[in-house]
Amino acid sequence: MTGGSASAVQAIQTLTAGLTTTLSRSVVVLYCCRVQVKEIKRVLKSFMMKLQARDAKERLAMEWRLVALALDRMFFVLYVSTIVAFFVTSTLIYQIHSIEFADAMENIIDHIEQQQT
User: Fold this and answer.
1) Which of 57, 81, 93, 117 shows the smallest number of beta carbons within 10 Å?
2) How far is Cα 62 from Cα 55, in angstroms, rounded to an integer?
3) Phi, psi at residue 2, to the nearest 5°?
4) From residue 22, how far is each of 18, 75, 80 by CA, in Å?
5) What pTM was computed for the model?
6) What is the 3-state composition of the chain as percent helix, strand, coil, each rounded to the nearest 5?
């Protein structure tokens, strides 16, 4: 080997060593990025699962609120219907008894008048 070719070989070896070091560093950086991306994916997946669980709980709570509202309205209508039915029947019963009482009083008065004559 001549002096020029020895220095060229040495320059190539230095360049190759530098490239190898740079490639090694790049591989390490890429590996670290890959690990970080996996960690980010894991955190995002966990976050999404928590959001889905919270949404499911909120949907369930909303369904129960709707059931409670429907039952509340149903019992309110039943309550009002019962009150109306009570007042209607009590009024009818009062009227029937009033008519019966009036008839009974007329009969008594007629009977008394017949006895006096």
Assistant:
1) 117
2) 10
3) -95, 170
4) 6, 78, 85
5) 0.48
6) 95, 0, 5
